[in-house]
Design goal:
seven-stranded mixed β-sheet, 14 strands, EC 3.1.4.55, Metallo-beta-lactamase, Chain A, globular, phosphoribosyl 1,2-cyclic phosphate phosphodiesterase activity, 8 helices, 255 residues, alpha/beta, single chain, hydrolase
Length: 255
């Protein structure tokens, strides 16, 4: 099973508007970060997209993604959903809508904000058929597990995808580690973890919290994501322990 990291940056990306690179070296290509989104791909070639970042169109072009088989959303914050319209092109060659999955509150908010995506309008086809996340355990050959996570005053969803004896865990946008997260992500072959910056943050994991999650889940390997402009790729890479690495846009890894 393969991870494709479409985007690895925080809500403003790196650099921020105004060409603000912060502490990131602008000459290092892996410091240029679009908003977070991933694809997990099975040995059979089935692809699940997690989140529809505002940069989705360019992410799909950069990674030569022409088809997905389902889409999952972690939560409804803008940097995770506002590229939803770019799913239209991925719907064109399908006989029906793309299957979509989200928690109850996230699904409600998405339907309200993007009603045309889920209902079709003015002769345009429905793009996504939303399904209850609570009922999914299998999707396109992937076993799926999930749990909710604290994200400051909001909630986000962590996912675990398994296929062909391998597992990938995805936990972005969390502000505390819970027992349910440890249960869901325990022993994954590859963990993708939120890691905004080194200093604690009220709604996101900081470096020490991300390292703690990796240790307590006993993940075989961990990739850090949702990195802000203070997290220079080379500097971070050189200080991380074995088995943990910074993510970057376009990263592909086998679980």
């Amino acid at each position: 099973m393969k991870l494709i990291m479409l985007g690895s940056g925080t809500s403003t990306g790196v650099p921020r508007v105004g060409n603000d690179w912060g502490e990131c070296d602008p000459s290092e290509p892996r410091n240029r970060r679009s908003r977070v989104s991933i694809i997990v791909e099975s040995k059979a070639g089935k692809r699940i997209l997690v989140d529809t970042s505002p940069d989705l169109r360019m992410q799909m072009l950069d990674n030569n993604i022409k088809r997905i088989d389902a889409v999952f959303w972690t939560h409804d914050h803008a940097d995770h959903v506002h590229g939803i319209d770019d799913l239209r092109v991925l719907r064109y060659d399908r006989s029906g809508p793309i299957p979509g999955y989200a928690g109850e509150e996230t699904a409600r908010r998405l339907r309200k904000r993007f009603d045309y995506v889920f209902e079709g309008q003015f002769g345009y086809q429905t793009i996504v058929e939303m399904n209850a996340l609570e009922r999914v355990r299998l999707c396109n050959g992937f076993a799926v597990d999930w749990c909710t996570m604290p994200h400051g005053p909001a909630r986000s969803t962590a996912f675990r995808f398994e296929n062909d004896g391998r597992s990938i865990g995805y936990a972005t946008d969390f502000s505390a580690i819970t027992d349910e997260m440890l249960r869901t992500l325990s022993g994954v072959d590859l963990l993708v973890s939120d890691c905004l910056r080194r200093r604690p943050h009220p709604t996101h994991a900081h470096l020490d919290m991300a390292l703690e999650l990796a240790k307590r889940t006993k993940a075989r390997r961990t990739v850090l994501t949702h990195l802000d402009k203070s997290m220079d790729y080379a500097t971070l890479r050189d200080e991380l322990p074995k088995g943990i690495m910074p993510g970057f846009d376009g990263l592909e890894m086998m679980a």
